[in-house]
Amino acid sequence: MRAAWMAQEIVNTYVKDIQSVNLVPGEDGKFEIFCDKQAIFVRHEEGRFIEIKEIKKRIRDFIDPERSLGHIDRKIK
Question: Residue 2 and residue 76: Cα distance in Å, rounded?
Answer without folding.
Answer: 25
